[in-house]
Write a structure and sequence with these properties.
Length: 204
């Protein structure tokens, strides 16, 4: 009989838009974690031909499609970030499909001391409850605006619309096991990530 393999620690990693979740996820990958990016999973489950794609087009109409017939995420974003009811409808369509795809991947088995599920809506989608530990990445709002303008080409107004469409970070922080402040330099962020890893997973 082989020895039972230890199940990886399931780390839920979240934080509001442009706080640097992906930066922290990359650091955790360097420490040995397997990373599942829920946004990348969402890209896959809304591709043309999927049931999720059909449901989104039924709800929002063909004007959200690009010339290639795929969903244009920026057009869709412009619609839902200004309309809380539309955003809720979109999430009700997309979240279950993303969660099912993530669970499938976990069920297939992962060779790593920890699996990081990186998701902006980790708490709201209910998936945080399945995680062993919840980590929240934070940074000041003015830094979020700067990053959205620099990295995603948004205007200042568009950046604020996206930030204001999200719950305040305090709600996530209240539920967090670990809070990583990514408002300073990357070395400071790395030190916090390593300390959290030691506490929750063991020595990197």
């Amino acid at each position: 009989m082989g020895t039972m393999k230890k199940r990886p620690v399931l780390i839920g990693l979240t934080g509001n838009i442009a706080c640097g979740k992906s930066t922290v996820a990359r650091m955790l990958a360097e420490m040995g974690a397997a990373v599942i990016d829920a946004d990348a999973v969402a890209h896959a489950v809304i591709r043309k031909g999927t049931p999720t794609y059909e449901a989104i087009v039924r709800r929002f109409g063909p004007e959200i499609l690009g010339p290639d017939g795929e969903i244009d995420r920026r057009r869709l974003g412009d619609r839902v970030f200004r309309d809380p009811a539309a955003l809720r409808d979109l999430e009700a369509i997309v979240h279950p499909a993303v969660l099912a795809a993530i669970q499938e991947r976990l069920a297939a088995g992962v060779e790593a001391p920890a699996v990081v599920i990186e998701a902006i809506k980790l708490i709201e989608s209910g998936f945080a409850r399945a995680c062993d530990t919840l980590w929240v990445v934070t940074c000041p709002e003015r830094e979020q605006v700067r990053r959205l303008m620099a990295e995603r080409g948004l205007s200042e107004e568009e950046a604020w619309v996206r930030i204001r469409a999200q719950p305040p970070p305090e709600e996530k922080i209240r539920l967090a096991d670990e809070v990583i402040d990514n408002g300073g330099d990357l070395e400071a962020t790395r030190r916090q990530g390593e300390a959290a890893w030691r506490r929750r997973v063991g020595d990197p």
